[in-house]
Structures are given as structure tokens and as C-alpha cells.
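Objective 1b: paired records.
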Amino acid sequence: MSITQQYLLDTYRARQHGDPTPPAPGAHDWQVMRELPDHRRFRAVLAGRPARGRGRVRAAWARLFTRPSGKADPTGPAAPTRPAGPVISGECAPRTP
């Protein structure tokens, strides 16, 4: 029996008994996904392990995809400087007489 058939059977039985209908399959999937990290931290505490704080994955992504702070590395070469102002395509250096 598929999940849809089970849902239809449960809905039919609920109507026959005058009970409220059950939620549709997949109605609370996002809520479950949001609560999963809380459940993992709870299970870690019960097992005697330290509960990790929120944002470990977000911090890892931030470290991977953010630019360096711009501080010069004393051991590495100096960063090239950008010209001041916008660079217009086809712009040439001024002619000297």
C-alpha cells in the first residue's frame, strides 16, 4: 500500500468516526528538518558528549566562501592595487605631446 492510499484510507476512517482528518503526507517535512539539529544536540547530551552550538555548518561555509580579510601576509607577496575609479571598456591612456 502506498502512502497516498494509506492517507486516503485514514481520511475515510476519520470521516466515518467523526474525527478530524490527518495531515497530508509531507505537510510537516520542513518542520521536521528544522528540528533535526535540536534532536541531535539532545541525543548528544544524553550520550554524555558535548552539545555543539548552532551554526557549525554555516560557519564552515562562511570560511570556505568568504574573501580574505585583506590583511597583508608578511611572508607572501604584496597584493596588487586596483586603480581608483571605474575602468571603462576601451579607455586608453592620455596622449603625451
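Objective 1b, second protein:
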Amino acid sequence: MYLTITTVNVTGGGAISSDDRHHLPKKGQIMSDMINEAVKVLSAKMDGVEIGGTVKFEIEGEGSVMVDDSGVRAGDEEADVTLTADPETFQGIMSGDTNPTSAFMTGKLKVDGDMGMAMKLASALA
């Protein structure tokens, strides 16, 4: 869960408490609408699925989403496998209109790392 800040005092004086800081994105992490939606959709699709490692979805021009056995979150961390796609391909995979294996075979989805984990994830998303 992320804290939504509706106003920001850029001249100083408006401090964020240390309790709130752990809810904020890490420095340099951009929380686009697509990333927020991806976290929601992937959380639903991955509910109860154990993948036994860490997967990173890199959505070109938008940011990254991390998936592991503890859940789904926006982030850009080391992973066992990284899946990279443009926003259109990623949305197609999330909606079920694009098969992840077909996207990989046609070069629309790039896989770097543990191919077995990528295949396990693809079956969970299909």
C-alpha cells in the first residue's frame, strides 16, 4: 500500500514522518498509473501462486513491478528472472489477449534469467 500525497510543500516546512517514509516509492522510482494498475492486476492473478523466487516485470517507459512469494509491489530490485515488454504487450498479457509464450517467441517479450521460473509464471498468467 502506498501513501498518496495530494499536496507537497517544496519550499520546506512540510516534513514526512518516518512512519510514512516506508510507504513512499524509493528514490528514482516513478509510480505511473500503469504500474499501479499492474500491481493490482498481478496481485489478483498471483493470489495463492508460489513461484519460488523473484520476478521483475520491466514495462518500457513506465517502470518495474516485482513479484515473489510474498506478493506484488512496484520496485526495481534484483530478480531471478526479468521480463521486459512495451506497455501494449504487457497490457495484452495482463488482459489475456496476448499469450506470454507467443509474445516471447515473436520477440515482444524479452526474458533474462531463469527460464523455468518464467515458464511457471506464464502458466499462472494464462
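The mean pLDDT is 80. The longest strand covers residues 63-68.
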